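Quick one:
INPUT:
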């Protein structure tokens, strides 16, 4: 609809400027021009409103998915705790409670990142049980809104989502398809560090590194390869986001 209105508007303007027409035809063409422009503008804003409704609905759906998954996981934790109590395995309770406390602390730090889109994405993938789930690690509270970064929160969210997809679809050794990806976020030396550490074995790690480097270059981020003490044949990749002066 918008492109048809645009063509009509352009055609009407050309006729008005390039042709010597009678007054009645000029009036009709001016009316056609006004109608075309008005219809095009209305159509444009209707599409924007429809797209915004879809975006908001998607955001609500993602948040609802996170709530449902978390409720399911917390029920599992409570059932395990109740099972130990009922079986009088009281020696198991301290470790179980400590695990719950650590998870609560992890989710609290994730929720304080400051970007709603990133928070929902990390929580959803962290508890979703999808192929190659995320293990999100923040050793301390990181608030992106308080960091003077040259990269926006939306761009950071986009980069993380794309990087996770790279790992998710990368060829892996047999039996390693469900191995998690450990994602660590920290702040050191006036820089934001985001580490990617796949816990399985990649068949073509160089291709993963190449794609991570391409994304880093697009956003002016530095990529470093770190040795992995647990898996000599693998590597940890780190994005470094420097603070602006």
């Amino acid at each position: 609809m918008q492109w048809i209105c645009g063509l009509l508007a352009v055609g009407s303007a050309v006729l008005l400027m390039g042709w010597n027409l009678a007054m009645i035809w000029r009036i009709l063409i001016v009316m056609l021009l006004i109608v075309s422009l008005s219809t095009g503008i209305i159509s444009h804003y209707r599409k924007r409103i429809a797209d915004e409704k879809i975006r908001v609905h998607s955001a609500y759906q993602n948040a609802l998915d996170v709530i449902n998954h978390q409720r399911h996981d917390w029920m599992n934790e409570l059932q395990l705790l109740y099972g130990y109590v009922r079986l009088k395995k009281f020696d198991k309770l301290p470790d179980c409670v400590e695990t719950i406390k650590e998870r609560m602390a992890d989710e609290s730090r994730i929720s304080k990142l400051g970007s709603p889109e990133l928070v929902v994405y990390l929580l959803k993938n962290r508890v979703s049980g999808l192929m190659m789930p995320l293990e999100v690690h923040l050793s301390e509270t990181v608030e992106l809104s308080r960091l003077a970064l040259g990269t926006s929160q939306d761009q950071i969210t986009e980069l993380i989502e794309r990087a996770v997809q790279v790992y998710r679809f990368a060829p892996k050794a047999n039996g390693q398809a469900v191995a998690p990806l450990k994602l660590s976020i920290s702040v050191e030396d006036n820089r934001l560090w985001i580490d990617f550490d796949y816990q399985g074995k990649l068949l073509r790690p160089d291709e993963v590194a190449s794609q991570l480097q391409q994304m880093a270059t697009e956003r002016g981020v530095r990529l470093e390869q770190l040795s992995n003490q647990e898996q000599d044949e693998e590597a940890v990749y780190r994005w470094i986001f420097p603070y602006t002066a």
